[in-house]
Amino acid sequence: MSSLLDLANSEFEYEGQASYDRKQNLLQQLRLLTSTRKGSVPLDRDLGLDFSFVDRPIGVVRSLYAAQITEAISKYIPSLKIVEIKWSGGADGHFYPRVVVSDAG
């Protein structure tokens, strides 16, 4: 059974002490990083996620998404680390990630 992953509804939460502007900036960086298809940025083909996992079984999707987002954050936003990835779903069968991050320091 293929998954019904809905990345458009991904949620991001920052845990830590930061100004409102810094927090919003970090969350915007996360949204940009996770909504960009790897290979689509001409001067940085490695930026983003490889969305080939989207139509895979749910367990595979969760594992591949976690691995890819962890790698992407460590490379492009090294000031952050992932605390937790939670998965939520709706009655329509679609599910989406909720990523909690904090300062890497």
Write the layout of secondary structure elements.
Elements (H helix, E strand, L loop, with lengths): L10 E5 L4 H16 L22 H19 L3 E10 L5 E9 L2
Parallel strand pairs: 1-3
Antiparallel strand pairs: 2-3
Describe the structure.
The chain is α+β, with helices and mostly antiparallel strands and 105 residues long. The protein contains 2 helices and 3 strands; from the N terminus they run βααββ. It has helices at residues 20-35, 58-76, and strands at residues 11-15, 80-89, 95-103. Strands 1-3-2 form a 3-stranded mixed beta sheet, with helices on one face. The mean pLDDT is 92.
In short:
This protein is α+β, with helices and mostly antiparallel strands and 105 residues long. Helices cover 33% and strands 23% of the residues.
